[in-house]
Amino acid sequence: MHNVTDAIRSAVPQAIKKPLRMVRATCRKVLETLQWFDNARLRPALRVVSWKLRFCARYLANGCKTKTILTLPHKPEPDSVLYKICHELGFRITDMVGTRADLVVNWEDCTVRRHLDVLEELSLKQPVLNLRCRDISKRKVEAVHQAVLGYGLAVNPREFAGRCVKKSNDNATHDGRIIQCPVEQVDEQAVYQRVVNNSRDGQFVEDIRVPVFGDAIPLCYLVLRPLERRFGFGADNISAQVCEVSDLLSASEIGMLLQLCQKVGLDYGEVDVLRDVDDGKMYVVDINNTPFGPPKCLDRRSGALALERLSEAFAASYGLKV
After folding, report:
1. Ramachandran region, residue 180 (left: φ > 0; alpha: ψ -120 to 50; beta: rest)
2. Are 85 and 310 in contact, with CB atoms under 8 Å apart?
3. What does the alpha-carbon distance between residue 150 and residue 161 come to, in Å, rounded to a whole number?
4. DSSP string, 10-35
5. Looking at residue 183, what is its pLDDT?
6. Tens digits of residue pLDDT in 181-202
7. Which of 38, 87, 138, 174 might form a disulfide with 55, Cβ 3.0–4.6 angstroms?
8. Which residues, including other chains, have CB under 8 Å from residue 184's CB and lie 6 or more apart?
């Protein structure tokens, strides 16, 4: 084989060897570039471009008028609902301290937030959304749940007998698993809760996601995922539908939910609710103050209509009409 290769190389005129090497090197660079622009990088970039185009279209439709949303200490990610709402409305997002802003939002994607002097100073001049929402841990949500609704999910794993859910006290870990109690050793980084029977047809679990804008709830999402992936991420959802709030929550439940949000300091965000088919009660299992969405498993038309309604609620709730 080497003899054949050597013979081919010797037969190629010296004059074209250099151009061939250049072509080969160029092809290699092109392939490397294509590998870099794989789906994981290209698709997010294209999504950002599409949102920027939408912002430009709405900005022009608004007569080149806009509102400025100051988010600190970080800017919202392109997959977040706030990012999409602002671009849908033609609003400018900035994290530059000192910018004159029409609305200030405390935006930090973590379970327990830092105290920031700059936000405290801004709050003396204008409202800062979610300034008081500094702890969205499972224990905090449980304590507020008990105070507002009069019942909760927490169990003592050393004394409780039966199946319970063990999951991290931190938000958005999706590491829940069902264990048998009582247990001898307790994980201090975890919480232990009774299992909510939110199953449908014995094959799926049904979650209710509730967007909150101050004291307004414009819609709800009803989300299904396989029973075996009940603690999974959004990618595990198999279907979602946009529902009217009154179809899923009673008037008294809406009132308690808003009271719970007020007590935990959530001015803007989304709340995850489970409905137990055995006792009929609702249980708040998560509070999200930097929510992503709308759910990706919504069809395109439903997703667009949901975002339109969320945007209208955002502008109306915080006095941001252009």
Report:
1. beta
2. yes
3. 22
4. HHS-HHHHHHHHHHHHHHHHHHHHHH
5. 96
6. 999 999 999 999 999 999 998 8
7. 87
8. 158
Tell me the percentage of the chain whose pLDDT exceeds 90: 80
Task: Indicate the pairing of strand 204-213 with strand 268-275.
Answer: antiparallel
Buried-state track 72-93, b at ≥16 Cβ within 10 A, e below 16: beebbebebbbbbbbbbbbbbb
pLDDT of 44 higher than 90: no
CA neighbours within 13 Å on the CB side: how many for 42?
Answer: 7
Tens-place pLDDT, residues 225-267: 999 999 988 888 999 999 999 999 999 999 999 999 999 999 9
Answer positive or negative: Cα dihedral of 75, 318, 145, 80.
negative
Question: What pLDDT is recorded for position 321?
Answer: 87
Computed over every residue of the chain, the mean pLDDT equals 91
Dihedral, 115, 169, 228, 296 alpha carbons, nearest 10: 0
Q: Which two tokens stand for residue 277?
A: 């088919």
Average pLDDT rounded to a whole number, residues 24-46: 62
Name the maximum alpha-carbon separation found in the chain: 88
Burial 262-281 (b: 16+ CB within 10 A, else e): bebbbbbbbbbbbbbeeeee
User: Is there a contact between 181 and 164 (Cβ–Cβ < 8 Å)?
Assistant: yes
d(CA 260, CA 210): 13
